[in-house]
Specification:
The complex is a heterodimer of chains A (387) and B (499). With 387 residues, chain A is α/β, with parallel strands linked by helices. Helix content of chain A is 40%, strand content 15%. Chain A has 13 helices and 14 strands. Chain A has a five-stranded mixed β-sheet, sandwiched between helices. Chain B is of the alpha+beta class and 499 residues long. The chains are: A alpha/beta (387), B alpha+beta (499).
Chain lengths: 387, 499
């Protein structure tokens, strides 16, 4: 089997580390001492933000799982899955989380004594895999557990991507030759190298893939030396890794264009720019701190008289987003950092006004001009109207 | 047999029978002193809305005294659900322990429910009004009924709970002494206001219990068992108090039944009563519903969505008794949700909830112990086996680790047993207290014989499991304790139940 490309330079030897942990647990049991497993606490209260670093990093807090009658099931499952993962690493086999779930099912079906370990659904096995990752402080990809996540649909007339394949050969993709088809890289940024045929002025990441497609169809990428990408809602690891790669390899200005609402600001833009609390240990490689928030900005609503809506507080999703926004202003280190004061001000404005304005509302400014949205975006970039 | 026709909407029922079946109500009635009974037909004169008695006859009737009424009514019958006939009958049975009822619904067999209280409750005697139940206008109108008497006499003879001491207290609270000896007609409106304010500012004894006819905790405890096989229950009757200037008594019974077809994931069945009359409609705005929803039942071990009735296979019966119940509408189906009344019902429900929680906690601890014991058995060996495989350890290490694991988890199960024992002793203490209150033997209240038998079987089962599963020395000890405890308890309960 071909050697897998490593995601990053890993400082630990996973099989060796896992064996040390297992040996310690066994020794504790032999001495009638309660074994303890510790994992990084991946929650907001253990997240730190330093504007110089640019993304959320883990603090010192750990989740301690000590053996007792309540945790014995979890520990047995951890050890059970750890053995499967170690075997995968040994023989170079890779799986998705879903496949690992079914591998567990198969092993449990084949041996009656494992029946109590059975997972009712994938959520249960996923949480164990995540725990193992957080315990060893490694990415799931480093445990040979890959997701079928793709980077955002990307269009450019200038970008050339070179991909190193698993057999060592290289493939070169010139995005200008793809016609109307987008380039959508797999979640393996480490395998890609980027080059610009001509100077690229900026990269625009659009929340809605549909709007990104519209802009491309109307000739946005032909008229501008740029990279245009559709994020497709909350950015997956694929999108985040791909943005990080663009930021590092091309060093061009990057802008995010999305809805003006609490959900977009906290769940989409913050995750793209600084990562999330749930993926604390991987934010270093899966966030693009240089991305700026181009809009929709509160001043755009006034300036362009954009149609907007009142937040329905009776709608549980919207009400929750507002409540979360209030929490974020008090507890989220990203919004508490003074470098992100502008973004926190937008959240405050949203909480106060209780309105939301969608990215597509720019199409209302001059309905007869099909490229009015493009003009506004370019004007905003020119005038530095972003946060 | 209804002692009198109050509370069943007799005039409406008679009119309805007459309108649909062209005949009012056929009545047969006999007093204790009468040799023969009187039978006849009561119709309603629709124009004047008055009763018309027809076909009067003296007939022989073997019963010593009583009244029988017969209606033939054409209408749609709703049997089940909150507004159903069965719920009405059950509710009436619950709050009338002295009632024996025999009924037949559709083509079902006759059903007889015997009384559990053999003394017919006496109608409460009319008592003098409590001064705190009056508003200023009522107070002044009441005074006009007494003619030329002095204020002090009026207060002492026109109200209950006013003694010489109370009069002194009124004076301390601002009542001018000279007013006391003045004749009522000479008092001005301003004087009445001052008197009224002083009375309201003075603490008085609560109104007499005799003015409200409660079911009582003991009778309710017996009556609730007539609704089905009770798993466990808790009953609370509060002391009478003043709500919105009226004397009120609230009683709450919470029960879980065996085989009552109540779903564990649906809201509890709420039975509401106002002066022993079941309230079956317009549940949402009722003071009783509001009060139950405002209690945090999660702290008593029940699930509860926000601002809703709790979830579970329980029956919650709440009875409000008062000479003046304020209803929200003319159909008298919804008790007005005033803050004071809601608070009183809420407090009663919380007291009942505290008692109920002890049963639920004990069950939870039992389940917890069983789960913990099962976990040791199921997951322990896998944990050790997989660790051994990852490390590549030998058999000696494996058996040593297995031994160590048993010791560790045995300690946990001991702690769970201790928790269960504590929960059991608290429940027992509560039952003893209740039994002492109602003069029964310890342990017999709150569980019927079948439930005790069930519990005995369950505990035996748990004990068997405990003994089977645990081979370790420590856990053996725990099992021994558990066996001793449960056997003792079962024996005690069975003996008491038989006695």
């Amino acid at each position: 089997m071909a050697k897998l490309l490593s995601v990053r330079e890993l400082k630990i030897d996973i099989p060796k580390e896992a064996k040390i942990i297992a040996d310690k647990m066994l020794r504790d049991l032999e001495n009638s001492k309660r074994p303890v497993l510790e994992a990084v606490k991946t929650t907001l209260d253990n997240s730190y933000y330093n504007s110089k670093v640019g993304y959320l990093t883990p603090g010192d807090k750990k989740v301690r799982t000590e053996l007792n009658v309540s945790s014995v099931q979890k520990l047995a499952r951890v050890v059970f899955l750890l053995e499967i993962i170690l075997r995968n690493l040994d023989i170079g086999s890779v799986n998705t989380k879903r496949e690992l779930y079914y591998i567990c099912k198969g092993l449990i079906r084949g041996n009656k004594k494992y029946k109590p370990l059975d997972f009712e659904d994938q959520v249960e096995s996923d949480s164990i895999i995540d725990f193992i990752g957080d315990m060893l402080e490694v990415y799931r990809e480093e445990l040979n557990c890959f997701a079928n996540e793709r980077g955002g649909q990307t269009y450019s007339q200038q970008l050339v991507v070179t991909e190193t394949l698993s057999d060592g050969t290289k493939a070169t993709i010139d995005l200008s030759t793809l016609g109307t088809a987008p380039f959508q890289p797999k979640n393996k940024p480490q395998a890609l190298r980027l080059k610009a045929k001509k100077k690229i002025d900026f990269c625009l990441i659009i929340e809605s893939e549909g709007t990104a497609n519209t802009l491309v169809n109307m000739g946005f990428t032909k008229r501008n030396n740029c990279i245009l990408m559709g994020a497709g809602g909350v950015p997956s690891n694929g999108v985040r890794g791909w943005c990080k790669l663009i930021q590092e390899e091309l060093e061009i200005p990057m802008f995010f264009f999305g809805d003006l609402d609490a959900y977009t600001m906290q769940n989409i833009f913050r995750t793209l720019k600084a990562g999330s609390a749930a993926s604390l240990i991987r934010n270093a490689n899966f966030s693009a701190p240089e991305v700026k928030f181009l809009g929709v900005l509160p001043e755009d609503v006034r300036k362009y008289d954009l149609p907007h809506y009142n937040v329905k507080e009776s709608d549980p999703v919207e009400a929750r987003a507002l409540k979360k926004a209030k929490d974020a202003l008090e507890n989220d280190p990203f919004f508490l950092d003074k470098k992100n004061k502008g973004l926190a001000d937008i959240l405050r404005w949203l909480i106060k006004k209780k309105i939301r304005c969608e990215q597509q509302s720019f199409f209302s400014v001059d309905p007869k001009d099909p490229i009015k949205t493009e003009k506004i975006i370019l004007e905003k970039i020119r005038n530095k109207s972003f946060v | 047999m209804l002692p009198r026709a109050a509370g069943i909407g007799i005039s409406a029922a008679t009119t309805w029978a007459q309108m649909t079946n062209a005949r009012g109500v056929v009545v047969l009635s006999k007093k204790k002193s009468m040799r023969k009974a009187i039978s006849g037909q009561v119709d309603v004169d629709i124009k004047s809305n008055t009763g018309v008695f027809k076909n009067k006859e003296s007939v022989d009737w073997e019963v010593p005294h009583g009244t029988r009424v017969e209606f033939l009514i054409d209408g749609r019958i709703q049997m089940n659900g909150d507004g159903g006939l069965v719920t009405y009958i059950e509710g009436t049975v619950l709050v009338n322990p002295h009632l024996t009822i025999k009924y037949k619904l559709h083509d079902q067999d006759w059903i007889t429910i015997d009384r559990v209280l053999h003394e017919v409750p006496e109608m409460p005697e009319a008592t003098l009004p409590h001064p705190h139940t009056f508003k200023l206008g009522e107070f002044m109108t009441h005074a006009t009924l007494f003619g030329k008497v002095t204020l002090v006499n009026f207060l002492k003879t026109g109200f209950s709970r006013i003694s010489d001491q109370s009069i002194n207290d009124f004076v301390k609270n601002g009542l001018l002494k000279p007013l006391l000896t003045k004749s009522l007609p000479t008092l001005t409106e301003e004087d009445f206001k001052k008197v009224f304010v002083a009375i309201q500012a003075t603490e008085l004894m609560p109104p007499s219990t005799k003015s409200v006819l409660t079911v009582g905790e003991e009778a309710l405890s017996k009556s609730i068992q007539r609704l089905g096989q009770v798993d466990f229950f808790s009953v609370v009757t509060r002391k009478p108090c003043i709500c919105d200037f009226k004397p009120v008594v609230v009683e709450v019974a919470l029960a879980r039944f065996i085989n009552r077809n109540l779903q564990s994931d649906e809201p509890v069945q709420l039975l509401r009563f106002a002066n022993r009359v079941p309230l079956q409609f317009d549940k949402a705005g009722c003071a009783i519903t509001r009060a139950i929803e405002s209690v945090n039942w999660k702290s008593y071990g029940l699930q509860q969505p926000k601002d809703s009735l709790p979830i579970g296979p329980f029956v919650f019966a709440v009875s409000v008794t008062s000479p003046f119940i304020k209803f929200k509408n003319a159909s008298k189906e919804t008790i007005d949700a005033s803050d004071e009344l809601v608070e009183e019902i809420r407090r009663t429900s919380m007291q009942a909830g505290q008692k109920l929680a002890r049963h639920i906690r004990k069950e939870f601890k039992e389940a917890d112990l069983e789960r913990k014991l099962a976990h040791i058995e199921l997951f322990g060996p896998i944990l050790v086996e997989k660790l051994v495989e990852i490390v590549g350890a030998n058999e000696t290490r494996k058996s040593k680790a297995t031994e160590g694991l048993r010791k560790l988890l045995g300690r946990d199960s001991e702690a769970a047993i201790a928790d269960l024992e504590e929960a059991e002793s608290r429940l027992k203490a509560q039952k003893d207290k209740e039994a002492k209150k109602s003069g029964q033997e310890s342990g017999s209240q709150g569980l019927n014989e079948a439930a005790i038998e069930d519990e005995r079987q369950t505990t035996e089962k748990t004990t068997e499991k405990t003994t089977d599963k645990t081979t370790d020395k420590t856990t053996d000890k725990a099992a021994e304790r558990s066996t001793e405890k449960t056997t003792e308890k079962s024996t005690e309960k069975t003996t008491t139940a038989k006695a």
